[in-house]
Amino acid sequence: MTTDATHVFEQHRSLLTGLAYRVIGQVSDAEDVVQEAWLRWTGADHSTIAQPRAYLLQVVTRLAIDRLRRVAARRETYVGPWLPEPLLTEPDVADRAELIDSISIAMLVVLETLSPLERAVFVLHEAFGFSHPEIAVILQRKEPAVRQLARRAHDHVRARRPRYDTDRVAHTEVTERFLTACERGDLGALLTVLAPDVVLIGDGGGIGRAPRRPIHGAGQVARFLIGLNNTTIPDISTEITSVNAGSGIVVRSGATPLAMFALDIADGLVRTIHAIANPDKLTRL
Hints:
By secondary structure, the protein is α+β, with helices and mostly antiparallel strands. The chain has eleven helices and six strands. Strands 2-1-6-5-4-3 form a six-stranded mixed β-sheet. Helix 6 crosses helix 8 (143-160), helix 7 crosses helix 8 and helix 9 (168-184) runs antiparallel to helix 10 (187-193). Mean pLDDT is 90; it is low at 93-98.
């Protein structure tokens, strides 16, 4: 392995990790895929690789599809709803609407309903801007088949695509009002920031404290959140931070993260709350 080859891989590591994460929805699995791609890269004859970027994208895409197929069976027996592992992002990423759309918790949940191949095609085309001929080369499939996959995925996602406010200042203001109402146990104030048909989806994995079924309606969701506030937790703290290119609320006991709340906000109201309390998914927070 030459220094130049190592440099080439490191130049593309961020791109490869972002691709794998969007296809799989799990940071640890994405990192494993990139590590496996690195091992294959070290064993390759680089003199025969004319386009290293295309080669690496091809390897990572295939590995991510294979990994997603393997973990799909585990997710079928998962205790309660399964949500993607949250990813800390830089605050300025939230200014780029196309990244929010491809990496938000809500969008990753929608992508979970696609087949692995549809998901890979959608991510490559919509999130990374690859053309159908380029994707056909990456997946080693005929272009008409790729176009059919892309069309099915696009129609499926369009029917379920979450709405969200793109104004980061407004989004943060609603998040702050939501958090303040929760911390004060102010039911009335909390109801003013929740949409009447708000849904709370929890992921505790059978370990963390989270509902095993979605909670529907502003009243039910508000009472559940107020109930959480009444739980005695030592050295508890909350922080608003940038998670998956949006505003997220991280709850900690000392230095240990206990939960992360991702809010989908549209028209100045919280429409969906994704609450992740599985400790295995919070280690990077």
